[in-house]
Amino acid sequence: VQLQASGGGSVQAGGSLRLSCVVSGRTSNDAATAWFRQAPGKEREFVAGVRWSGGNTYYTDSVKGRFTVSKVSAKNTVYLQMNSLKPEDTAVYYCALRWGSTVHYTSDRYTYWGQGTLVTVSS
After folding, report:
1. How far is residue 14's CA from residue 117's CA, in Å, rounded to a whole number?
2. Residue burial 53-92, b: 16+ Cβ < 10 Å; e: rest
3. pLDDT tens-digit map of 4-25
């Protein structure tokens, strides 16, 4: 399984970005994909996740109402639409996949990781 994340960039506060994560080698719908982020000097934290079977979505409180995670199974792609961006959203964003339908909020439960894409939000 390989994950390829893209879509990061630099925006001003209040702007929007859409991240994409293309998953190759996924052989089952019994899987979950999550977005994590890591800011300089901070631990990696869960942002949002989606189940490939059923499409249930999950968010950390700080992004609820601003971010939307979705998937297009036919394209093996997971998206993270980020609106109303704030400077505190600045981080490297990673997508990750685990087998099993549970979306876990800790990074150690995910087996496969993309390379990360940098999001910078200026005030």
Report:
1. 19
2. eeeeebbbeebeeebbbebeeeebbbbbebeebeeebbbb
3. 999 999 999 999 999 999 999 8
